[in-house]
Amino acid sequence: MNSKIEILTEEQRIAVVIPSYRVTAHIAGVIAAIGPEVWRIYVVDDACPDGSGEHVVNVCSDPRIKVLPHDLNKGVGGAVMTGYQAAIADGASIIVKVDGDGQMDPALIPLFIEPILAGEADYAKGNRFFDLEEVRSMPRARLFGNAVLSLMAKLSTGYWDLFDPTNGYTAIHRDMARLLPLDKISQRYFFETDILFRLNTLRAVVVDVPMEAKYGEEVSNLKISKIVGEFLLKHARNFAKRIFYNYYLRGMSLASIELPLGLLMLSFGTVFGSYHWLESASNGVATPAGTVMLSALPILMGVQLIMAFLGYDIATVPKRPRHAKHRKRPKP
User: Fold this and answer.
1) Can you give the CATH number for the domain in which 26 is found?
2) Total-model pTM
């Protein structure tokens, strides 16, 4: 009986991390909307020029609040990692990340923690695209930018079944948070997809949680046009790391052969065909049919092998939660 009570107490330790930077106009309302299911609230003042942490201390009397100040700005990722570290040290069972700008409804927190408590997922992530009618309310520039970033994120993280990988409304079980290299995760806006990449290498199960985003008078600090190039390079790096970790370092499969062979054949066919096409064009003669076939066949076979690899990669998205293996069960 005592063990059962202890387990229930641990499961009720829901922590919320709120990275705070230029959100003094909204953060008090966000905190006020957090329900009684939450055990502790960590407000991380990321060297905010508006004094977000001091503002929270002055206007919020909620005893669950702990303000964690940064002397230097670390970025939203760095602020969240500070909150993760504090929550893990204090014994939180599930850590939810909510922005302080009012775009994420705290009333949805029970929906995010439900699949984790049920042992169905290790990490829950918001999905703003579930209701197509609600998508129309999103600013078009933000919608297009998120679509591009989401496609890149699917490739680099391996979570092909996620519909909104760049969403920042998340919840994570403490067992998975402990396994994350918090000091290596990107400290700026890339941290959301960087976490997904690292969760995939841990074979963690990630699920979508349908949600509605609010777009009011708040000003976003994220400029899509300025970070697309940076994100592209980081996605390419993480994609290469994920493929090496999952398909060569930890195990080998047919897909481990399909990808390099497909890339090799595609590259050969493209280079060979381009060279002979330029040579024929400069000489004013038609390219021989045999030369065309020697370039076309490797291209076609290379594309097929790469598509086969992607099909295998999509089919191997993690399905078995890791933290469920270690869950304690009450004695009869």
Assistant:
1) 3.90.550.10
2) 0.85
